[in-house]
Amino acid sequence: MPELRQNFMTKEWVVIATERAKRPDQMAVKREAKPVVSFSEKCPFCQGHESQTPPEILGLPDGEGWKARVVPNKFAALSPDCPPERTIRRSRRSMGGFGEHDVIVETPDHSLAMAMMPDSQVADILRIYKIRHDQLSLDPRVAQVTIFKNYGTDDGTSLEHPHSQLIATPVISYQVRQRFQEAMQQFDDFGCCMFCQIIEEELEGQKRIVLTSEHFVAVELFASPAPFCTHVYPRRHMASFSDVSAKETADLGRVLRTMLAKLYIGLQNPDFNFTIRTAPAECVGVRYFHWYMSVIPRLTRTAGFELGSGMFINTVIPDEAAEFLRNVKVEAAVGVS
Ligand SMILES: [Zn+2]
Ligand SMILES: [Zn+2]
Fold this sequence. Notes:
- The strands form three sheets. The protein has a ten-stranded antiparallel beta sheet with strand order 3-4-7-9-8-13-14-12-11-10, with helices on both faces. Strands 1-2-15 form a three-stranded mixed beta sheet. A two-stranded antiparallel ribbon has the order 5-6.
- The protein starts with a strand and ends in an 11-residue tail after the last helix.
- It has six helices and 15 strands.
- The protein has a single domain (3-30, 40-333), classed as 2-Layer Sandwich (HIT family, subunit A).
- It has helices at residues 119-137, 174-190, 194-205, 246-266, 304-309, 318-326, and strands at residues 3-6, 13-16, 58-62, 65-72, 86-89, 92-95, 100-105, 144-151, 163-169, 209-212, 216-220, 230-234, 272-277, 292-297, 312-314.
- A hairpin with a 2-residue loop joins strand 5 and strand 6.
- It is α+β, with helices and mostly antiparallel strands.
- The longest helix is centred in the last third of the chain and has 21 residues, at 246-266.
- One zinc ion is lined by residues 40, 43, 45-46, 110, 161.
């Protein structure tokens, strides 16, 4: 029978359409494999083409070359030179488009997907995220730092060279505010962090766990809005990504790479987005919010019902998605760290 499930964190309802349900393996992407090239003459992110990007903000050297680098986005959505001044004219509010928009070039290798990188390289990328997140959070004009990756052809990404992005904004989005209010309300009512509660319950039940490590837990959401929507939670309560330790970062590198490799192998290299959901700078250290990573493969399209109702229909039962991913073996297919 179909079932409606409510997301504990957002209170959003999702339809788990069991009558239309597909087996997890039916979601695998069917497309032709592209030829693998580790260098492209036309790509501004390939090694040797450094002059084609704006000047580097941060680099991770590797002998004569580099392992990873951060550059300003040439086509930035927001500009650091724009003062964040507010204007209120009757019902119309606006603000100068202040912000920072970084591109994190993850590797010199044009075709090395994150799922195939050594764990240590993914950990290096996470370290870079943290450095830029911390630097920008100190700027009094910055209210929120969003770190994300768009991977694939249909995902709003125009360059295929492995990269992720970071956008610092002078406002906190309505969606983030609402989620924070929900978390705060929950803390006021029950005296505990709702994320810590979810981690404890999922570890107890085991059904939706994909993998665990010393410091992290990867789990399919109970009320997942889309197939294989995965959260990676730190076991230790931390509101902000800024609080993550060096040991935890190394561990997360392994967990994230393994998770992505499971998707890559199990679903045949699907498009995906990931993002780090973390406390805005003004909420660092709060007891009611808990940072995490959200990984969402793009296997379905949102359509009229989702747009009109704000409710999603998911045709893969999250418990079965977790079982499927647990059984995908990744060790043999990836580089050694
Ligand atoms: Zn390239
Ligand atoms: Zn917590």
